[in-house]
Structure of protein-tyrosine-phosphatase:
Amino acid sequence: MQSRYSVLFVCLGNICRSPTAHGVFQHLVSQQGLSGIVEVDSAGTAAFHVGAKPDHRSIKVASERGYDLKRLRARKVQSEDFHRYDYILAMDNENLRNLQEIMPDNPKARLQLFLEHSEQQRFSEVPDPYYGGARGFDLVLDLIEDASGGLLREIHQRLQQD
Ligand code: 4NP
């Protein structure tokens, strides 16, 4: 019987893709009245930006769609996160490989690519937008909005079965 779920989004730096997923998913969770029931967090596999705010380009495109990322701060993912979270969701295959390397025995978390929850079929990874232009940040948001809807539908179903 499980009445609460926790979700950790992971990318490389925790300043572009995973904080965007954090903000979008948190927004959906609040909108559906599930704030006390579904916990949301994000982290990076690298430590370059620990303590930093999300990238200003991510903050901007997210705010244009009504999501507030300004209060988020980067942290590095830890092995212990596998015992704390129900879902650990990687943005790309490199993130997934790095997470598999630190995954402890008997994890609580289900580790998968975030876009496994997506409706669209074209992308299986959320492309790293860091060295690209503004359109990359819009694509990140499109993919994240799509997969967030799918993930929340799955969690809703699991909450109803419990
Ligand atoms: P993120 O993007 O993994 O989506 O946060 C990146 C942020 C920083 C760097 C690379 C990707 N970097 O090389 O500093």
User: Anything to note?
Assistant: The radius of gyration is 15 Å.
